[in-house]
Protein: Glycoside hydrolase
Organism: Streptacidiphilus cavernicola
Amino acid sequence: MVRRWVLVALPVLLTAGVAVAAVLQQGFGGGPATRGPVSLCTRPGQRFPVASVGNGSYQLNPDEWNSQAALCMSGDGGADFTVTSSGLSAGADSSAGAPGAYPRIAYQPGAGELPVPVASLGDALTSWSTTVVPTGRYDVAYDVWLARDATGCAAKVPPYELMVWVNQRGGPVPLGGRLGGSGSTVTLNGKAYLVYGHRPTSRTSPTDHQVITYQRAVTTTSVHDLHLRRFIADAVDRGYIPAAGYLCSVQAGFEIWNGGAGLSTDSFSFRLPGARLPPWPGRGQGGSRGRRQARGGSGAVGGGA
């Protein structure tokens, strides 16, 4: 019941909203703009090589935060990538029980796009198509980072994390306890999700942050126009994200414990609306909140897809 806790470190802790936006535009450290094929491999001392793809709109990163094993990913320069080789295994992980890496693609915001108040986020839509493999232990997940204010987005690890698991294999379970009881789900975007929540007892370490995870009850390899505002509104209603918080970063990838070679993001997109919505009303009145429902059985996904 452990998972990835660490976001790639930002170069500095900035204190001005404009400066925060500049860092976010650089994709958490930047990377060379790529117009053709790209290949990224980790090696000792270089666990987080990055490259900008999709005409600079996205960034690739193997994000091998918890292992020293060899890991490579490649893409054609568009919003896609494949894990081409992986030495990841539980025995090679630095922190026992946690995944070794999160090879992923992240949205690189344009000027003035992020950070943005979650209350006026509007139709933040994302589509993602993947190819999974029948071996290994991994999840297929969005990783959305948020902060209490715009400057908080420049922290080494922002204090709020929202994950959306659309698939998994090998038995991983989201961090924290099941919310709403073992037989409950929430329906968002017309699909049922199991919800898990983790609240740290203190924030003495940068990795002690609050996490809410939405695990899709019926797994899938692709989503179309997933409405992130609805997940964020539900998390606000549950008290896991502040209503006045800010969206910092949107990522999609594979948390891998073992194996992972062949996992692929075939296409990915994220777009922010041109116009912001007015802030939603008080708690539980936003209109974008999903409908909770009881579901027979525990609904736990232990064996994976």
In short: The helical segments are 17-25, 228-237.
